């Protein structure tokens, strides 16, 4: 009697997709929800890297292998067409991001569908001026001599320029205050001392290296509510509902909990979320 030994092969399911986030302040672009965008790494040239950091307004920013800037911050001339056969969008040599919220650039939005467009209201204004039937050569009166004084025009232009500079300065202040008041990884990315205190990782680079290893597994996270815990059932369904924090900020919150032993009420206050989300 002979026994045949069956070989069992185990195949680990991997997800080849990578989730890139744009590191420009106030840009929420992600490769998972914006498939039409491309996400570009920082150039290797040190001088060109400094130009990128200055343009995106990230002082003391530590560039890592996961740092990306999305294509909507570059002008069309900086994007090489067509993309590579693999579908990767490339940049022209020396390209620098220049399109941001703070320089009055509005991110492109999708055009409304044909069924969402509204018709223009009918034109109620008369198309022709009433004329005198006894006048064989009707004409319209125009004031061709009326013109704006050069001095008044210069004052108006100077005032507009001052207003633009004031608006730009105020926007920068609002952005800096928003970033400084937000309790998240982005706020402490430039300080390795704060990273060690809140997460126990030696540096920000070590933390991001660890995050890169576990990031693919975030798609398979099982979220359990208190009601499911009370039932004590092993059949817990996957929850695909959106969360109030980005996955990397959820990881930062969890490391705060392990490193400092903070209570849920304290964590909810720091991250400005409801206690139930913690």
Uncertain ranges: 5-17
| Proportion of residues in helical segments | 25-40%
**Secondary-structure element order, as H and E?**
EHEEEHHHHHHH
Please give the count of helices: 8
- Give the strand order, joined by hyphens, for the main sheet: 1-2
Morphology: globular
SSE topology:
Blueprint: E1 39-40, H1 46-55, E2 69-70, E3 79-80, E4 90-91, H2 150-181, H3 185-188, H4 192-199, H5 204-214, H6 226-231, H7 247-260, H8 264-271
What attributes characterize this protein structure?
278 residues, two-stranded antiparallel ribbon, 8 helices, mainly alpha, globular
Structure notes:
There is one protein chain. This protein has 278 residues and is mainly α. Among the domains are: 65 residues, no CATH class; 87 residues, no CATH class. The chain contains eight helices and four strands. The strands form two sheets. Strands 1-2 form a two-stranded antiparallel sheet. The chain has a two-stranded antiparallel sheet with strand order 3-4. The longest helix has 32 residues.
Structure in a nutshell:
The protein is an all-alpha fold. Helix content is 33%, strand content 3%.
